[in-house]
């Protein structure tokens, strides 16, 4: 409902609102829903982290969130953050959260 989905009174979703609202911004920034989805075990992050290298993980994160590969600068910073973290899972959650809260994601998706 926060993201404009109408109540299930009609078979059509033509009444969906596409306007950005403050509850949407707060949900993305600090809402429990996004936090729960990112930290839940057996989610896409677990599969990415178990599938291979940091480069593959970063590519998949960017493609999943932004529908594009990371730029060279984004790849370098993200790879350094992932490599230097004590907890790889937590670092991947941080990167996913950052992508979901980027202007590019918020305004294009």
Report the end-to-end length measured between terminal Cα atoms: 17 Å
Content of β-strand: under 5%
Q: What is the C-alpha radius of gyration, as a whole number of Å? A: 16 Å
Unreliable segments of 5+ consecutive residues: none
Global morphology: globular
For this structure, the quaternary state is single chain
Order of helices and strands: HHHHHHH
* Number of domain modules: 1
Residues in helix, % = 55-70%
Overall average pLDDT: 80
Number of E-type strands: 0
Q: Count of DSSP helices?
A: 7
- Main sheet? none
What structural category do the secondary elements indicate?
Answer: mainly alpha
Kindly describe this structure.
There is one protein chain. The chain is mostly helical. The chain has one domain. It is 64% helix and 0% strand. The protein contains 7 helices and no strands. α2 packs antiparallel against α6 (88-100), α4 crosses α5 and α4 (54-66) packs parallel to α6. The chain is globular, with a radius of gyration of 16 Å. The mean pLDDT is 80.
Summarize the structure.
The protein contains seven helices and no strands.
Keywords:
109 residues, mainly alpha, globular
Please give the structural blueprint.
Blueprint: H1 22-30, H2 32-39, H3 44-51, H4 54-66, H5 72-84, H6 88-100, H7 103-108
């Amino acid at each position: 409902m926060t993201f404009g989905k109408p109540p299930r009174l009609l078979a059509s979703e033509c009444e969906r609102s596409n306007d950005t609202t403050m509850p949407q911004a707060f949900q993305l920034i600090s809402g429990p829903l996004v936090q729960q989805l990112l930290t839940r075990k057996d989610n896409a992050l677990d599969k990415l982290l178990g599938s291979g290298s940091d480069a593959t993980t970063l590519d998949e994160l960017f493609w999943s969130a932004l529908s594009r590969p990371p730029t060279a600068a984004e790849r370098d910073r993200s790879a350094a953050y992932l490599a230097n973290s004590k907890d790889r899972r937590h670092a991947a959650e941080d990167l996913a959260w950052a992508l979901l809260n980027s202007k590019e994601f918020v305004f294009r998706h």
